[in-house]
Amino acid sequence: MSDLTPRATHLREGAGGRAVHDIGGLDFGPIDRHEHDLALWEKRTDALLILLASKKGVFKIDAMRRVIEDYGQQEYDRTTYYEKWIRAIRNLLVEQEVLAADEIERRMAEVAARHRSLGREVSTETIVWPGRSPA
Q1: How many CB atoms lie within 10 A of CB 77?
Q2: CATH superfamily for domain 40-117
């Protein structure tokens, strides 16, 4: 049984019944159309998606889109493109029972501790799992 509860599509406030991800035509300011190099973690996220979805068949790209489209408005608006991807991959690994949420949390704590011991900056942000309240 999955550690996650079913998701529900969230509606964007003041957007006439549109879902959170349906932002086409809304005023979000100018779009930065300049090319930029991807950060290493973004490249790794892309590679992980290709491996899990295309090569291993752990989940379909449609599932990835479903998870991202079902983010709440605040989460959708404040996360970058690849942040949306990596969170969706994390959630799908649990949903598809490849890993348990507790296992992912434990491993992330180990990685954070290793980075801190090397003097690297580590985010203290807690990414809430779908269907769970913040601790």
Answers
A1: 12
A2: Nitrile hydratase, beta subunit (1.10.472.20)
